[in-house]
TrEMBL record:
Keywords: Endoplasmic reticulum, Heme, Iron, Membrane, Metal-binding, Microsome, Monooxygenase, Oxidoreductase, Signal
Record-stated family: Belongs to the cytochrome P450 family.
Protein's name in the database: unspecific monooxygenase
Enzyme Commission designation: 1.14.14.1
Length: 490
């Protein structure tokens, strides 16, 4: 048999297999657009605007529909009621992590974000307990955030009101806070290792949000042979994990089991306690990946939100003026902001909520999967099926948020100007897989933004009407465009 005949037979077999798998499942899964063999629906999606593609499909097929990324079916949930029903009302059944091959090649199913089953439950339970022991949601973490916010102010003063790109300086704050929790030390903002880590994290968020990574996730076998940015992302992951492993080994040498200093110490103590258990999840490799997950999730999501917030405040100076008036009236110009202030600052609180709603940081959430065969909305979703929950469709629901494409803090204020909560506010997801660091992230956003606005006037280099707030990429995350601004001290 010559090579051409072999290739034709192989391709034909794959097409027939693809058609058989799709037809055998289509009677159980929700409806969706007709897909091509092997390729699936990949080329029917706008890779630069997945959110809009999902909205268009939902108008045809309803709030629950099926797409094929390659030969694998993915059930998409669109709209608040559907997402809530899955993640909250059926939280256990939808608590598995869906497929994300590009990242899985690096983390191998370890850690807290992309782990599965019992491993995920054990590591998540331990992580939540340890973060509480270390003060998450308590005063000592608030003190750390306040101190870091003041360090940021001093660094911003050094710019002397000159134009600057805020990307790295805003990344320093959340990164230093998570560093202090993980390995009990912060970095100077000019530290070479620190800047390299921030650069790797920032680069990976951009890479993970590109259409190329969506292609790689749909056809993972090809990524082993094709060059591309996924290789750069893998090298960045390896660099970060190698750096963290070095820190872990330093902790092993200085560990005092009677006096744990940070997250790594608590984990190493737990590992010693589990020595007798051959099936223990508390391995060194799992520690490295867990710490890497905390490091990445605790840094880039918050720093990107801060960066986007300043861009929106430049675009809407009338909002900035109202926030600064409230800050100076409630806090003054000299006392550091604290979390107790938030309940007395409804407009500022509403502005921060509106930033998170408007920017739609993780548009399609991290992929979920079902833990068992489940009947959902009269459809049967087989165990292990990947599920995408459109957080965009919740955060931009026009019934809950009039004119959802407009940036308006009034979305979170009642007619009397009091802060108004919304069940539709899901930037951290919902249910059993929601972000473990939500409380800390919300604290950082409030304290850092109020501290910046208490001390500086924000000056744009262009007229506000010329500022474009559209995300440059919005696959995995919504990344704001490059911009510069001036921090003018009051």
């Amino acid at each position: 048999m010559d090579l051409v005949t072999f290739l034709v037979l192989t391709l034909s077999s794959l097409i027939l297999l693809s058609l058989w798998r799709q037809s055998s499942r289509n009677g159980k899964l929700p409806p969706g657009p007709t897909c091509l063999p092997i390729i699936g629906n990949f080329f029917q999606l706008d890779a630069k605007n997945i959110t809009q593609s999902l909205t268009s499909f939902s108008k045809v097929y309803g709030p629950v529909f099926t797409l094929y990324f390659g030969m694998k079916p993915t059930v998409v949930l669109h709209g608040y009621e559907t997402v809530k029903e899955a993640l909250i009302d059926h939280g256990e059944e939808f608590s598995e992590r869906g497929s994300f091959p590009v990242i899985e090649q690096s983390n191998k199913g370890l850690g807290i974000v992309f782990s599965h089953g019992n491993r995920w439950k054990e590591i998540r339970r331990f992580t939540l307990m340890t973060l509480r022991n270390l003060g998450m949601g308590k005063r000592n973490i608030e003190d750390r955030v306040q101190e870091e916010a003041q360090c940021l102010v001093e660094e911003l003063r050094k710019t002397n009101g000159s134009p600057c790109d805020p990307t790295f300086i805003l990344g320093c704050v959340p990164c230093n806070i998570i560093c202090s929790i993980i390995f009990q030390n912060r970095f100077d903002y000019k530290d070479k290792d620190f800047l390299i880590l921030l650069e790797k994290l920032n680069e990976n968020v951009k890479i993970m949000s590109t259409p190329w990574i969506q292609f790689c996730n749909s056809f993972p076998l090809l990524t082993y042979y094709l060059p591309g940015s996924h290789k750069t992302a893998a090298k960045n992951f390896d660099y970060i994990k190698a750096y963290l492993l070095k820190k872990i080994k330093e902790h092993q040498e200085s560990l005092d089991v009677t006096n744990p200093r940070d997250f790594i110490d608590y984990y190493l103590i737990k590992q010693k306690q589990e020595n007798h258990n051959r099936h223990s999840e508390f391995t060194l490799e799992n520690l490295t990946t867990t710490v890497s997950d905390l490091f990445g999730a605790g840094t880039e999501t918050t720093s990107t939100t801060l960066r986007y917030a300043l861009l929106l405040l430049l675009k809407y100076p009338e909002v900035t003026a109202k926030v600064q008036e409230e800050i100076h009236r409630v806090i003054g110009k000299h006392r550091s902001p604290c979390m107790q202030d938030r309940s007395h600052m409804p407009y500022t609180d509403a502005m921060i909520h509106e930033v998170q709603r408007f920017i739609d940081l993780i548009p399609t959430n991290l992929p979920h999967a079902v833990t068992c065969d489940i009947k959902f909305r009269n459809y049967l979703i087989p165990k292990g099926t990947t599920v995408l929950t459109s957080l965009s469709s919740v955060l931009h629901d026009s019934k809950e948020f009039p004119n959802p494409e407009m940036f308006d803090p009034g979305h979170f204020l009642d007619k009397n100007g009091n802060f108004k909560k919304s069940d539709y506010f899901m930037p951290f997801s919902a249910g059993k897989r929601m972000c473990v660091g939500e409380g800390m992230a919300r604290m950082e956003l409030f304290l850092v933004l109020t501290t910046i606005l208490q001390n500086f006037k924000l000056k744009s280099l262009v007229h506000p009407k010329d500022i474009d707030t559209s995300a440059v990429v919005n696959g995995f995350a919504s990344v704001p465009p490059f911009y510069e601004l001036c921090f003018i001290p009051f």
